[in-house]
Amino acid sequence: MNIFLQLVANGLMLGGLFAIISIGLTLIFGIVKVVNFAHGEFLMAGMYLTWIITVGLGLHPYVTVLAVAPFLFVLGAMTQRFLIQPLLLARDDHVQIFATVGLSTALINLALLIFGADIANTPASGLRAPVQIGPVRILEGQVYIFIAAVLLVIGLQLFLSRTQTGRAIRAVAQNRAAAQLMGINVDRIYVLSFGIGAACVGLAASLVAPLYPVSSTIGTYFVLTAFVVVVLGGLGSIVGAFVGAMIIGLIDSMAGFYIGSDLREAVVFGVFLVILILKPSGLFGTRVSLSHIS
Amino acid sequence: MLTIEGIDAGYGATTILQGVSLEVKAGEVVTIVGANGAGKSTTLRTIAGLITPTAGRISFEGQDITRTAAHEVVDLGITLIPEGRQLFPDMTVRENLLMGAYRKAARAAQAETLEEVLQLFPRVRERMNQQASSLSGGEQQMVAIARGMMARPKLLMFDEPSLGLAPIIVSQVFEVIGKIAATGTTVLIVEQNVFSTLKASDRGYVLENGEIALSGAAEALLRDDHVRQAYLGI
Amino acid sequence: MQRTETFAPPAARPVYLRPAALALATVLAALFLIPVVVGDAFIYHVFITICIFAGLSTAWNIVGGYAGQLSLGHAMFYGIGAYAGMILMNMGVSPWIGMFAGAAVAVVASVVISYPCFRLHGPFFALATIAFLEVFRVLALHFRDVTGGAMGMMIELKLGWEWMVFRERLPALVIAYGMMLVCLGVAWAIREHRLGYYLVATRERESAAKAAGVQTVRVRLLAVSASAALTAMMGTFHAMYLTFIEPAAVFSLTFSIQIAMFALIGGIGTIYGPLLGAVLLVPLTEIARGALGAQALGLHGFVYGVVLLLVVLFMPNGIMGALSRFTREKAAETPSQAGPVVSMPRAETRPPLGAEVMRVEGLQKHFGGLHVTNNVSFTLREGEILGLIGPNGAGKTTVFNMISGFMRPNGGTVSVLDRDGKMHQPVSPGDFAALGVGRTFQIVQPFASMTVEENIMVGAFYRHPHVNDAREVARETAHRMGLAPWLHAEARGLTIGGLKRLEVARVMAMQPRILLLDEVMAGINQTDVRRAIDLMLSIRDTGVSIIAIEHVMQAVMSLSDRVIVLSSGEIIAEGKPQDVVRDPQVIEAYLGKDFVHADH
């Protein structure tokens, strides 16, 4: 029984981690309708920045979010403005996919050029210390990640439903042409949304860095799971991404114990393929069509 | 108020409008009629800035808006109520209406405008907290018109407001358009329902194959042999 | 059709003298001769690698380019081939046999994987292929008894042609070069035959392809199988060449992206683009690796990524696309005026109406609570023209979708008579096409990147599987439809009237027995309306039955033997055109109550 509870706790903590990484991805897809294959490299860039600042200035990793999130906001906004926006007119699948795939390839290798193949460890600042909660033990940093993920979901929901800009973002997501007819500058909303989505990854990067060593390929490692989470939850749904993350976290944790740790990923991707093929709109994405989105 | 001079426009490499010129004076109700595919919607979408013409000139209140972006056209006071309603499906009716008042000139007065608009649409008031996608077609059309009015436009353009509606709803829609025109708002309508629209208009243009084939006072057009034969089937 | 010949491109010169053919021959010759002449082991290695990647990328292009299914998991087929070859070799089976075993496994895997994924488009198809690739990688790591797990696998060193392993480089180059030629040959053969046209048509507009009788799933499975088999065979040879494989390198996402990238940079969907991409980019990697070693870690990848970004932004059709823009000849210059529809000589008397060819009973369709079609029943006889009219939104197109297989009714049946006089109840668009039902779409659905001729050929292939026959039929049809001057223009450049005629031409080329025309007169001018009416009457006189949705009343009145009026999804009137337009209910539905009161 204790083992089972521990597995559930591990699963939920892993879910928190997946959630905080995935929220930006689902946000960008929901609004700009672009699957950002470079999402993982945004995370990688954020983690390297966290590492540089903590090691260089001796700051607590969480403080770096003040620099990392704005940095990623700019990176995301620029990606939209200079890479995606010129391609939106083409509305051609392969061009859009290759654009972010190309960005991903360039960023991975740029990191390899700058930082080499070795991994970089951000100082843990005590965040890897285990805490005992009832019968289960988890890492302190994991708890903060979980809390941050919950707060981020709530914060984004409030922003999208209560503010004028947030409503404009939703309007653009739901009907781009009609939003234009309301006087909304759609291009600006897209740039803003891509920026916000990337800034969410910045937050994730600062929180994740103390727990995981960063390398040029760390993004690929996380982003595939993030895709699973986001498709499961319904692309574009923030709450869906959170729930999806919890489910995948639990599956990962259980499969690792009961099936074998080396087959965990196969199980997760198996679930992903079943969802993708049987219910491509995911758990919460009733309206998002997975075919060509106009 | 609105002057269009010899515009060519279309989608991608496909040209739909060829040398279209027309004019709308302040306070008028003007109709563009024509068969499906004649280019009526394209004309409105070009004015609204959703399509940039490849030739010609559009001006509004003396200002050149030929290349003005869609959201800036709205700021100038031109609102298009698009074909097929185009509501924000996952928003409530109230949120849809408030989006209508996104235009800077309308934002401050949105509470008063909302009250005025709801006077015209008592049915919409009952549906304020419902999701837009749960409404019937007729109700959605009413919300779409109400949302357009929320922008307090100087020129309100309707693209096929009767599309897919039962005859009884269609006459209600035209009643509402009449009331809007009575408030002094300038109206430009595109319709396939030639008779009802011309009845409600001051002037009309007949668009055929992307060109203006005929224009004149609405009553004269209703008596015109070509119009009667081609569009009224008599 | 003598006069259509004048519209053929100026291709009078023999094939081998055309600049493109010369360039290709030069590249191919250089690929083989340069390493042989230079004789340096490193140069050999670079050129062998070019051949391998050119072959892989060409094979990928059959799926990713022609069929437009953007696979980023192609390394799984490569890996299957590599492991099959390696495992069998270590059991004493020659890789020449092993590579066919690997190809067979890859074909099975590709079909099993692709079939459920075909409903996914664009990025989602790409994601699914990535996920499958990951599953393969994890499984290869897990089953270490078979694959050697993370430790990888070495070949037992057996030299000679039988084992595909050599001390010297020349034989490896011969094999790599030969396999590349095979890939190019297969890619060429597919593109130049019916399958290639069908693949591109399916990529451009799946629904229009289905209406033209293309079994879209089948042609895509064929493409995927061919691509997987070639990729696996390449994988077998590459494994022998490298003598060592491991899951991380073989089932690698980076590797998959690279394969696709060469095709994109060279020109996605073109026959020789992938070759060009590999020729230009592979040396870069290999030289960076050879000259700078570990210092340049990431350099070539970074350059790849940046090149990819630049190509996507400034040259989305790749090098081939950019080249063809410069070399494109007058064919692309489209005359600005619409060509006339040729008026057809007509028989003196029309044949009498024949037997019932289509029977529609009690069709129901609702979306959620909304009834779009309610209890619609009618029949159509051989050689009859039935007009279907009604206000916009009355449900006419929905009825069309149900009587051509594009939408399943919630209730009711559609029966169609076959050539042998038996009634069938077809289900899919393919079933309907097989029974001779052809349709057009109200919102035109051209295969935008294909020429007018190729568009019509897609229809013509239905009865004429050979390219030359289909082209002949397409030209003839184009001439009849007044499209002859644009035969070699891309469909995307036509006016709306031209696109409408293209739509009709494509379906006419199928030689249907029942023709469903959805507002084909909309947007064409008065003279052409009259010619189009003559054309339809002449089609009818050959025994074809027509159902036409039409708003142009002039056409409806003079064409139709019978008219059905739909309003809010129900038939409100049916009968001779003159009677129907006088029906008060019809007038009210169309023109509003006011009109009825005003004029009657």
From TrEMBL, chain A:
Protein name: Branched-chain amino acid ABC transporter permease
Location in or out of the cell: Cell membrane
A molecular function (GO) term: transmembrane transporter activity
Alphabetical UniProt keywords: Amino-acid transport, Cell membrane, Membrane, Transmembrane, Transmembrane helix, Transport
Lipid bilayer topology: Multi-pass membrane protein
UniProt similarity note: Belongs to the binding-protein-dependent transport system permease family. LivHM subfamily.
GO cellular component terms, semicolon-separated: plasma membrane
TM region positions: 12-35, 65-83, 95-117, 143-160, 189-212, 218-251, 263-284
InterPro entries found in the cross-reference section: ABC_transp_permease, BCAA_transport_permease
Entry's Gene Ontology BP terms: amino acid transport
Lineage: Bacteria, Pseudomonadati, Pseudomonadota, Alphaproteobacteria, Rhodobacterales
Annotated source species: Cereibacter changlensis JA139
TrEMBL record, chain B:
Signal peptide from the UniProt entry: none
InterPro entries: AAA+_ATPase (IPR003593), ABC_transporter-like_ATP-bd (IPR003439), ABC_transporter-like_CS (IPR017871), BCAA_Transport_ATP-bd_LivF (IPR052156), P-loop_NTPase (IPR027417)
Membrane-spanning segments: none
Name of one Pfam family that matches: ABC_tran
Keyword terms of this UniProt record: Amino-acid transport, ATP-binding, Nucleotide-binding, Transport
GO biological process assignments: L-amino acid transport
SUPFAM superfamilies xrefs: P-loop containing nucleoside triphosphate hydrolases
CDD domains: ABC_TM1139_LivF_branched
MF terms (GO), sorted A to Z: ATP binding; ATP hydrolysis activity; branched-chain amino acid transmembrane transporter activity
Keyword Transport: yes
Superkingdom classification of source: Bacteria
Residues of the ABC transporter domain: 2-234
Family note: Belongs to the ABC transporter superfamily.
Protein name per its UniProtKB record: Branched-chain amino acid ABC transporter ATP-binding protein
Organism per entry: Cereibacter changlensis JA139
Gene responsible for this protein: livF
TrEMBL record, chain C:
Classification lineage: Bacteria, Pseudomonadati, Pseudomonadota, Alphaproteobacteria, Rhodobacterales
Keyword annotations: ATP-binding, Cell membrane, Membrane, Nucleotide-binding, Transmembrane, Transmembrane helix, Transport
One GO biological process term: L-alanine transport
SUPFAM superfamilies: P-loop containing nucleoside triphosphate hydrolases
Any one cellular-component term (Gene Ontology): plasma membrane
SMART domains linked: AAA
PROSITE patterns named in the record: ABC_TRANSPORTER_1, ABC_TRANSPORTER_2
PANTHER family in alphabetical order: AMINO ACID ABC TRANSPORTER ATP-BINDING PROTEIN, CONSERVED COMPONENT OF ABC TRANSPORTER FOR NATURAL AMINO ACIDS-RELATED
InterPro entries hit by this protein: AAA+_ATPase, ABC_AA/LPS_Transport, ABC_transp_permease, ABC_transporter-like_ATP-bd, ABC_transporter-like_CS, BCA_ABC_TP_C, LivM-like, P-loop_NTPase
Pfam family, one: ABC_tran
Name under which the protein is recorded: Branched-chain amino acid ABC transporter ATP-binding protein
Domain called ABC transporter: residue spans: 358-593
Membrane-protein topology: Multi-pass membrane protein
UniProt organism field: Cereibacter changlensis JA139
Any GO MF annotation of the entry: L-phenylalanine transmembrane transporter activity
TM ranges: 20-38, 44-63, 75-93, 99-118, 125-143, 170-190, 221-245, 257-284, 296-315
Source species, domain of life: Bacteria
Compartment(s) where it occurs, according to its Swiss-Prot or TrEMBL record: Cell membrane
